[in-house]
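Quick look at the format.
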Amino acid sequence: MRRTDSDSPKDTADSAGRSGSAARSEARRAGAGSGDRALGDFLRALRGRADPARLGVFDDGRPRRVPGLRREELAELAHVSVDYVVRIEQGRKRRVSRAVLTALADALDLDGDERLYLFAVAVAGTSPRDAAHPQDTPDDRVPDSVRRLLDGLPLLPALVLSRRMDVLAWNTAATWLLVDFGALPKEGRNLVRLAFLDPGYQALFGDGWEPMARESVAALRMEAGRRPEDTALQALVGELSVRDARFRAWWAAQSVSAPKLRRKTYHHPLAGPMTLDAQVYAVEGSPGLSLVGYSAPAGSPSEDALRFLAQWNSEGQERRP
């Protein structure tokens, strides 16, 4: 089954009337950006969506011009000066101590992923270009042993992903479930790009598309915080920001999340709905690569649907001359 990467009507409408220079400017503003401003931008977003009452801030009766915490309230909760918070948010404070970062995280009651991101962007903003992370294995170097493992899974869909969620390798079952990756150009083989720009891929998720798409944006931003100098990631974020208003809004919201085990329901046009668990495994010896396998509980209707897909496609191969 072949799907192509194309603009949806929403994409076309969103892009209409923009000049090329305006689009490039927006891409730069929405892109992964440098570590210098990432910490301040993230802190400002966290402060903006914080609930003062939940954090124990006394209501003094003054009207709030914008939602969230005022700078002076955050400064008081974190036991730092207001000027210090201002300088961080404006990108004028390059080095922030671990103690202050911990105080800010505690004051905002951040969850685990948000704390990790806060510390990651703080480190990235003070590290020389390309020094925060040594050169990783090239994205297209998938070990032969992993490729053999993919080929040895005739029923269970499986992929190898880069940190940017580029699809670097896949087995036949993955093409039956998701998309014919071999029919796409190399730059189109990215799960986030497919989520926003491929109508066929979007349709697989039905009403669950928006939660899936939001999760993918949050995971991509998590990676952007760790590697602000990743130009390929910046290009992906810039393109999607220009071509889809939803991506642009969710990226600007600064939500972050590390990839986790997810159970999703796929609405396959041939096999019908199936609920699958996606498990992520690190590829040993290949930093940045992960193996993602999709499975269903034994004896479940979803397992039957996977077997149906395998049989259907096997019979289709036999019918071809």
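Next, a different chain entirely:
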Amino acid sequence: MALLFGWPMVKGISEAFHTPDGLGLDNWRRMVEEPHFWDSVRNTLLLIVVVIPLQFVLALGMGLLLRTKLRFSRFYFYLWAAPLAVSDLAAGLVWLSIFTDRGYLNSALSELGLGGSFSWLSYQHTSTMLLAVVLAEIWRSTSLVLVIVVAGMQMIPKEYDEAAQVFGGSSWQRLRHVTLPLLKPNLQVALILRTIMGMQTFAVAQALTGQNFPLLVGETYKWFAELQNPAIASAVALLVLALSLVSSAAYLRLLRQSGAVEGAR
């Protein structure tokens, strides 16, 4: 564990603060002064704020549908979980074939007589670039949340829901007062994992938009591979690590406080 995690972290920290004159903050100063840095911070946080709530709503909805034992529900589960086997870059290329200028979306719009010449991924259309990345991320990683939600639902005894139904609980009341409280540990794990993975989003956006939609991990790649500056790349990577740790700690604290308040009630 020390070799796999400890040594790379020590190496990264030393690189981030190393300057020709010794230790200093020159690398961090260059990082924040880079033109695309603040755009990458904004885009990364925006993706997390938009994508994660949508993924949890979709995963809960799909989990509840599977719980009703629909016909072919096992097939639906495997179908919805299939994106787990697709790499980030492959998912980005799939959606690139849809949103590119001569892609499936413009072809379909052309067949319907609705134009079909819109540049969805142009740097001039930031809103449609964001839409493309959001849809690709939802398709790619909602399956992870779904698997965690389904695993949690399978651990909830059916007697709880049946008892609430006998006492007149509506579907919404049973979801709010029975299912969601018992799913809380699973949702907490899924929330932390998805936030950390959201901070690391890169390949999907890179395949779709190149550098027109900068993200924090993309800045790490750019500084390391293109600009040949591992020191600043390490600084950006440490920033991603710090944001992940802070968000995870905040989730744990907020959920612990909400649990204490519910217990007191």
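Residues 40 and 92 are 18 Å apart (CA to CA).

See the schema section for token definitions.
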